[in-house]
Write a sequence for this structure.
């Protein structure tokens, strides 16, 4: 990339440009459709981490969807980011503090009112496996 | 005859309310009647809280009679169902929160209450704000008032459709990747996503914490300035909320754009775009030149990477944000023998397909062995996208682009292909990644009469510039109302 | 058993509550004993849409702990989300620190016990929020979120510990430091202290690390000791039998005093850490660090060195006096009034600590103020009071809370050292016992004690025995 005469950043070289064509297949990088980028095993592992039970049909669908999406995401690898710092946040810098002052909620019972199951003032869940 | 009071803007309604020509009760009644008349077709609202709305209207009328009430006093609003409202069911359009009644108000809800605004009800949205069409609502899609076969855009589609259909005077939305601007464009109204940190996120059900921002839907740019003034400002409950105080944005609406430099990114005008959209945007730019502004070509070279980066960052944050829906303290619970089964079943039953897909993608992007290649990589690309804007703003005061490459699509047209749906946000998503303010407003109509949205992007905390420019354009452009 | 052939390698991860009034990210009270789910609000119960705001005091206490452990305090650190599902974890993630913790490096110095002090290096100290509490019933579990969001310092050591005893010594020193810097009240019951131990063994002399077992959630020093000893023995048995040690996470069963592998993979999870987007980076200015450094107390290791070099106290006394900050403070508050600090040391170690231990209360609650203890000892030094009388007075003061002077006055314990008064008493005794005086002068030395006793009796036991001795010797010799 270099500065062009009018001062804006111009692109050089022949990087691919994304073409917003709304015929579905044209959205993917060529060849990415058929490629499996995530296996059934990985889908199941991720589902376990995310604590979501998936039906057989959902597993199959996610295998396809996630493979396609990850295929599209691979375009990020066209960029060399080895010397780039990540941007985790875009707000103003600085750490807001709270003073160490107790401001208990006036109605703690209100925190329990949406509970699917309770025993007295405690939330109740099925047996916890350790 | 009070029946068409619902057509008023905030500015008009405020003028008549403060002169005592109409009451908030009449105005609220008119909106409730309008909802009753059209919402069975539009389905903008998930819940209408008539009794509470009328009670708020009566309170507002008392304040109005006492004199010097704020501009929003007595104004009936639609509230996206993503905002926690004390004592009012808040579902986020998800089965998992179907019966959730928050014991607290979001900061912006508190502010609107304090200003005397009236809440008509909670509006439809894509479940957990994940979507671009409002088809992902667990409670059925919202329809575009301009064409009921088409989507209103998403995720804040209910709020946008409600304003476009005159079911409320203005509405509240959130924007993570375009969720205010896209539906504003599709529904032919005004929507603004403020600078990240400008408006408190406290009590706004989180989708992607580093991207989510709150903003209004209105019928005019002036109304957007009024709403933003009420919403913005410091909040000690949100650590990411800016410590800068918010100006009175209506003061920026001078109508003057002479010598403003409007940047036009070449990456936003590419082949494949709907021709009427490009024509309308070019025409809007010509109007600005006639008004004395200057247009300069700029480049935002990393635009094409924005969607890929966004879908890693947003889903990663979402995967953690949505971990709290576990059936323990609130929300849907499916009976189970042990706690793990409780999670697996409740979350399976409670989340829709798109939410599951994004949780899965985000979980994967953060999981051992993939963090660097996906999540971290995306955050680095975010830096490049942000730099693009920083460099561009060295050459212009604001940026003008289309809000979307095409006008509203048909319901069901893109649901089969998630990636195709994600690409709807191509022109809005970079703005969230960079944390900038973006305004969407109508600037024309396609051959079918569907609205086309102009997007004005400002530098950080540049809301006044884009509101000023938007207001100036609005003075030379007359938007259409849908016929329902 | 070939246990002598092996060496244990132990690293500890200690979680200690920081003594703040309010929680780490919300305003709910941290105090124990509230009824279930009383100290909860939308933030610490993880309602949708809530956001954390950092308690400054918690950061200050963690930094003070970092300074006490000679850590480098990071001017810029970040909070991270640690994701796992557990019913007591309301958000499905814990806000913790991962990359870029608040305090890095550093060490804790253990008393030498005769040898040189030993340094246990630290990896890091970071801030995080505690989870709630699960109460397990037969076929359900109940959850109380009062503890959810209470600030914790996680203190991670290098694997520098070599025995269960040393681990406990290290824990005692950590606890002592926490109390010294005001980060804890030292009451480590009530779940305010939890520890994970990484234990491996290797052939003695080897410098390689063996496969470690992680033992989770030990909540008392005694359990740490038992669990480590059990684990060392278990690992040696496996190796001796020709087996291999698998990398495992174990739980300690306090009833059977054994460790067993965890059944669920809950903790062996992939935690998917990433920077917490709801909190900006934690920026600690050099001014803030210097301000905290300026208010740091003298630490146990420094006190130990000073007591040994300046006061001439031995390792044993030094160890006892410095372990608890309040004991050392008490001791030091006595010193200015006294000529001999050793008498103060003995006094604290015997009289004062006896009262403290018997009552189970803190030193401030159990014992008279240090200045009053010092007043008693001062009178002993000035021979106005006998040591026994001082002890009698002290016992009375513990109950009455009266001053030393008032107590001695009330109990009539003042010692008479006035030579003329004692001389006249001596003269009267000698005059009344002319036969015994003659016997003594004839060589029956033993009778001296009899005369002393008689004089003491005549003076109601309040006379200074040293003066009696002097006067009697003079008169009998005369």
């Amino acid at each position: 990339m270099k500065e062009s005469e009018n001062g804006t950043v111009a692109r050089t070289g022949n990087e691919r440009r994304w073409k917003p064509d709304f015929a579905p297949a044209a959205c993917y990088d060529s060849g990415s459709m058929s490629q499996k980028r995530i296996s059934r095993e990985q889908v199941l592992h991720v589902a376990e981490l995310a604590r979501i039970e998936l039906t057989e049909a959902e597993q199959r669908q996610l295998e396809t969807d996630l493979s396609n999406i990850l295929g599209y995401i691979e375009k990020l690898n066209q960029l060399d980011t080895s010397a780039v710092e990540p941007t985790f946040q875009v707000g103003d810098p600085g750490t807001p503090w709270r003073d160490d002052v107790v401001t208990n909620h006036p109605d703690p019972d209100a925190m329990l009112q949406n509970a699917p199951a309770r025993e007295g003032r405690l939330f109740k869940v099925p047996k916890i496996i350790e | 005859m009070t029946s068409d009071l619902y057509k008023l803007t905030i500015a008009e309604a405020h003028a008549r309310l403060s002169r005592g020509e109409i009451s908030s009760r009449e105005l609220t009644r008119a909106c409730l009647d309008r909802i009753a008349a059209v919402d069975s077709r539009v389905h903008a609202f998930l819940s209408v809280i008539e009794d509470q709305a009328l009670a708020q209207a009566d309170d507002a009328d008392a304040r109005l009679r006492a004199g010097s009430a704020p501009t929003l006093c007595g104004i009936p609003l639609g509230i996206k169902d993503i905002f926690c409202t004390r004592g009012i069911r808040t579902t986020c359009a998800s089965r998992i929160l179907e019966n959730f009644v928050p014991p607290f108000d979001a900061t912006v809800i508190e502010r609107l209450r304090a200003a005397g605004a009236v809440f008509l009800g909670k509006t439809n949205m894509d479940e957990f704000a994940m979507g671009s069409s409002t088809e992902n609502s667990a409670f059925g899609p919202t329809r575009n008032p301009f064409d009921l076969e088409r989507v209103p855009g998403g995720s804040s589609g209910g709020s946008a459709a409600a304003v476009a259909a005159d079911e409320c005077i203005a509405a509240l939305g959130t924007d993570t990747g375009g969720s205010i601007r896209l539906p504003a464009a599709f529904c032919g109204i005004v929507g603004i996503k403020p600078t990240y940190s400008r408006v408190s996120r406290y009590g706004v059900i989180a989708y992607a914490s580093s991207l989510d921002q709150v903003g209004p839907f209105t019928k005019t740019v002036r109304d957007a300035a009024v709403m933003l003034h009420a919403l913005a400002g410091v909040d000690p409950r949100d650590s990411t909320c800016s410590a800068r105080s918010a100006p009175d944005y209506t003061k920026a609406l001078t109508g003057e754009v002479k010598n403003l430099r409007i940047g036009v990114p070449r990456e936003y005008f590419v082949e494949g775009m709907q021709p009427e959209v490009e024509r309308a945007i070019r025409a809007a730019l010509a109007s600005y030149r006639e008004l004395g502004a200057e247009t300069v070509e700029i480049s935002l070279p990393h635009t094409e990477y924005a969607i890929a980066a966004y879908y890693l960052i947003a889903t990663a944050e979402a995967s953690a944000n949505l971990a709290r829906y576990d059936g323990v303290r609130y929300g849907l619970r499916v009976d189970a023998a042990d706690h793990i089964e409780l999670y697996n079943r409740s979350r399976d039953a409670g989340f829709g397909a798109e939410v599951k897909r994004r949780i899965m993608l985000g979980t994967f992007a953060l999981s051992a062995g993939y963090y660097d290649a996906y999540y971290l990589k995306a955050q680095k690309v975010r830096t490049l996208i942000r730099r693009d804007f920083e460099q561009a703003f060295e050459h212009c005061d604001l940026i003008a682009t289309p809000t979307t490459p095409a006008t509203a699509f048909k319901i069901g047209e893109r649901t089969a292909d998630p990636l195709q749906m994600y690409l709807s946000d191509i022109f809005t998503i970079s703005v969230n990644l960079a944390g900038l303010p973006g305004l969407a407003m109508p600037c024309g109509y396609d051959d079918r009469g569907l609205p086309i949205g102009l997007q004005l992007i400002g530098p950080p905390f540049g809301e006044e510039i884009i509101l000023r420019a938007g207001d100036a354009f609005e003075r030379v452009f007359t938007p259409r109302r849908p016929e329902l | 058993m070939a246990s002598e052939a092996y060496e244990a390698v132990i690293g500890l991860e200690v979680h200690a509550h920081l003594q703040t009034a309010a929680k780490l990210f919300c305003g709910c009270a941290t105090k124990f004993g509230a009824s279930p789910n009383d100290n909860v609000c939308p933030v610490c119960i993880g309602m949708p849409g809530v956001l954390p705001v950092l308690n400054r005091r918690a950061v200050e206490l963690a930094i003070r702990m970092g300074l006490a452990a000679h850590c480098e305090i990071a001017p810029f650190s970040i909070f991270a989300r640690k994701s796992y599902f557990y019913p007591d974890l309301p958000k499905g993630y814990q806000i913790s620190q991962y990359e870029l913790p608040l305090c890095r490096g550093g060490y804790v110095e253990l008393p030498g016990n005769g040898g040189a002090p030993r340094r246990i290096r630290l990896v890091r100290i970071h801030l995080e929020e505690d989870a709630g509490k699960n109460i397990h019933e037969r076929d359900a579990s109940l959850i109380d979120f009062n503890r959810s969001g209470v600030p914790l310092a996680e203190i991670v050591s290098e694997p520098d510990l070599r025995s269960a005893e040393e681990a406990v010594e290290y824990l005692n020193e950590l606890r002592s430091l926490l109390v010294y810097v005001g980060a804890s009240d030292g009451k480590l019951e009530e779940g305010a202290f939890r520890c994970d131990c990484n234990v491996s063994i290797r052939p003695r002399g080897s410098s390689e690390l063996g496969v470690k077992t992680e033992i989770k959630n030990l909540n008392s020093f005694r359990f740490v000791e038992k669990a480590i000893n059990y684990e060392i023995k278990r690992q040696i048995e496996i190796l001796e039998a020709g087996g291999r040690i698998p990398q495992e996470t174990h739980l300690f069963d306090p009833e059977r005093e054994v460790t067993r592998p965890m059944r669920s993979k809950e903790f062996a999870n992939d935690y998917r850490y990433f920077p917490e987007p709801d909190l900006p980076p934690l920026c600690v200015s050099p001014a803030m660090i210097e301000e905290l450094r300026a208010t740091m107390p003298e630490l146990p290791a420094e006190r130990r060195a000073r007591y040994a070099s300046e006061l001439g106290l031995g390792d044993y006394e030094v160890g006892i006096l410095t372990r608890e900050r309040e004991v050392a403070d008490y001791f030091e508050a006595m010193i200015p009034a006294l000529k001999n600090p050793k008498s103060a040391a003995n006094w604290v170690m015997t009289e004062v600590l006896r009262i403290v231990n018997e009552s189970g209360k803190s030193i401030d609650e159990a014992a008279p103020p240090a200045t009053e203890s010092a007043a008693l000892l001062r009178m002993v030094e000035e021979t106005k009071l006998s040591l026994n009388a001082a002890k009698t007075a002290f016992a009375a003061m513990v109950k009455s809370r009266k001053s030393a002077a008032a107590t001695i006055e009330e109990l009539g314990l003042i010692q008479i050292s006035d030579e003329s008064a004692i001389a006249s008493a001596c003269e009267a005794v000698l005059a009344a016992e002319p036969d015994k005086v003659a016997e003594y002068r004839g060589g029956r030395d033993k009778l001296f004690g009899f005369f002393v006793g008689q004089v003491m009796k005549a003076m109601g036991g309040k006379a200074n025995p040293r003066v009696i001795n002097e006067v009697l010797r003079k008169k009998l010799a005369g």
